[in-house]
Amino acid sequence: MTFIIQGIGAAKGISIGMVHIIDSGQVDIDEYTIPETRVDDEIQRLDEALSLARAQLRAIRAKTPSNFGADVTNFINVHLLMLEDTVLTQVPMDLIRERHCNAEWALKIQRDTVVGVFEAMDDPYLRTRKDDVDNVVNRVQWILQHVERSDQATAERHLEGKIVFADDLTPADAVLMRHQGVTGFLTAHGGPNSHAAILARSLRIPVVAGLHNARLYLRDGEEVIIDGRQGALLLEPTGEILAHYQQLQRFIAHHHNTRQRLRTLPTTSANGERIILQGNIELPADATAATEVHADGVGLYRTEFLFMNRDTPPDEEEQYATYRNVLEAMKGAPVTIRTLDLGADKQVDGGRPGAPLSANPALGLRAIRLCLQEVEIFRPQLRAILRAAVHGPVRIMLPMLSAMHEFHQVQEILGSCRQELEREGIAIGKDIPIGGMIEVPAAAVCADLFARELDFLSIGTNDLIQYTIAIDRVDDEVNYLYDPLHPAVLRLIQTTIRAGQRAGIPVAMCGEMAGDARYTRLLLGLGLKEFSVHPNALLEIKQVISESHIGKLKKFAARMMRTINTDNRMALLQAINANTSAALSS
Question: Which pLDDT score is estimated for 449?
C-alpha cells in the first residue's frame, strides 16, 4: 500500500528512484578554554580550517559543468565570500584571543550571534539566509573536527539516479550531487526560499522539503517517488501509481522541450494579445539568465543584495558600476531597479550599523521608510541609478509605498541629486520612469491615487498576501492560511490592475504569484499584462500564456471573484488549468 508523506514543494518536477540517506546535520563540538600559550596555535588551526574550506568550495566550483548556468556558481561564490568576511573569520579569532576559547567554540559563538540577527528579520527570503551562515560554519566545523563532509563522503559513491534524503543541503552539496547523477532531493528542514532549493530549481531537480519526521519511515535503498509540484513523498508505490508518475514524467519532459522552442518568440496569447514577460534578478550575473530565456527586460532588480555580508554600505561608485554591468548585460532591454529594501532588523548587512532592532520589524522602519529617514544611504543609490541610466533604459521602483507623501519626498531627493550631478558635469539619464510596489493593503486600496502620479505600478504579492491576511508564511503554525486566492487578496489585485488601466499606466506583478503557472490564467483574466518572474520560471509562464485565450479567461476571472468557498475556488482554478469547458461557462 502506498504511503504519502506531505512536505513542501520546493522545486517542481517528478523523480522516481532509490532513496539514499546521508548525514548532514549540525556538528557536535566541545567547548573548553585554552591556556595563553596555545592561543596562537588555536588561531592558526582556525585559519587553516578556513583555508581548507575555501579550497573545497573552489574545487566543487571547478567541477561544475558550464551548462549548469550562472545560478550554480553564484551560490558557491557567495559562500566563498563569506569565508573571506571578517564577520566569520577575524571575529572568531578575536574571541579566541579575548576569551581563550577553543576554535570550535569561538566559531559557534559568532555563528549564534549572526544567525540571531537573521532570525529577527521579517522578510522570508532574507530570513532563510541564516542557512548560508550555517552551511559555511558547518563546513569549517567539520574540518576542525576532522569529520568527513557529506560532499566528500558521497563523491566516491555511485549516486546515479538516486534520490538523496538529508536533514538539509548546502548549495555545494546540491551541485556536487547533481554532478554525481542525483535526480531528486528530500530534506527534513528548509523550504522553497533556501539557497539549495533555489539552486535545485536552476538545475531542474525536484525537491520536497520540510519532511520533519520522514526519517522514521524511510529505509536506505527503497524505491520512492517525489512530487515537487505537490510537495509529496510517496513510499511503497503500487504498480498503478508508478505507471501514472512515469507517464507524468514523460508529459513534463515533452512540455519542457516545447518551452525551449518558445524561447526566441514574443510572448503572445492564443488570441494574439502581446504580454510583457520580464525577469526578477538579485545579482548582476542573474542578468545573463534573463537574456538566455529572452526576457523582455528586468522587472525587478533587488539591490539589497549589494548591501549584504559587509560592514559598510556600498558607495556610489560601486553601485554605479554594478548597475551599469546589469544594463549592459541586458543589451538595451529595460531594467527596473528597486531601491534598497532593507529594514531596521537587518543589521548583519551594510545598512545601518548599530541601529536598534525593531520590536515588530514587519511593520517597522524598512524599505522606502528607511531610505527616507537615512538619506545618506539613499542619495548615493539614486545618484548611481541616474548615472547608470546613460547606459540603457532604467526604471526606478520604490518598495513598500503606503502614502503619497513618501513618493513626493523621493521626487524632491531625486531632483536634488539630478541638480548635483548636472553641476558636477556628470552625464545622467533623462526621463526615468518612477513606479511603486503595491505590497501594502493601504496602497492597493488607494491604487487610483498612486496611479495618477506614478509612471507604473508593480504588485508585490509576497508581502501583499501576508499583510492582507495578517500571517507569516514561513511560520509553520499559521502558514496554512497563506492563500493567494483569498477573496481580499484577489480584490486588491483587481483594484490595482483597474487603477492602472484607468490611468493609462502599466501594471506588472513581480511577486511569487506571478511566477506560479497555476495562477497565470487567472491573472490574465483579471487584466494583468505584465509579469516579472524568476528566469527559471519564464518559459513555463510563456507557454501557459501562449495557450490561453484572454477573452474566455475574463469570464473565468469574474466567476472566481464571485466565489466565496475556498474549496470551490481551488476547484475552479484546477478546472481552468485543465482546460475544461466547465470553468469557462458563465
Answer: 97
Could you tell me if 139 and 242 lie in one domain?
Answer: yes
Q: Is 195 a catalytic site residue?
A: yes
Beta-bridged to residue 537, according to DSSP, are none
Q: How high is the pLDDT of residue 344?
A: 41
Classify residue 141 as exposed, middle or buried by CB count within 10 Å of its CB (0-12, 13-18, 19+).
buried
| Interatomic CA distance for residues 84 and 309, integer angstroms | 10
Closest CA to 230 of 527, 577, 455, 518: 518
Q: Does 510 qualify as catalytic in the annotation?
A: yes
Residue 296: pLDDT above 60? yes
Domain that holds residue 516: 267-561
108 and 54 in one domain? yes
Catalytic residue among 371, 417, 446, 510: 510
Q: What is the 3-state secondary structure (H, E, C) of 470-514?
A: CCCCCCCCCHHHCCCCCHHHHHHHHHHHHHHHHHCCCEEECCHHH
44 SS3 class? helix
491 by Cβ neighbours in 10 Å (0-12 / 13-18 / 19+) ranks as middle
CA distances from 246 to 1, 7, 240, 251 (A): 18, 21, 10, 9
**Per the residue annotation, which of 20, 79, 101, 195 is the catalytic one?**
195
Q: How far is residue 172's CA from residue 79's CA, in Å, rounded to a whole number?
A: 9
Residue 60 has what pLDDT?
78
Q: Specify the CATH number for the domain of residue 47.
A: 1.10.274.10
> Is 276 found in the same domain as 214?
no
What's the whole-model pTM score?
A: 0.71
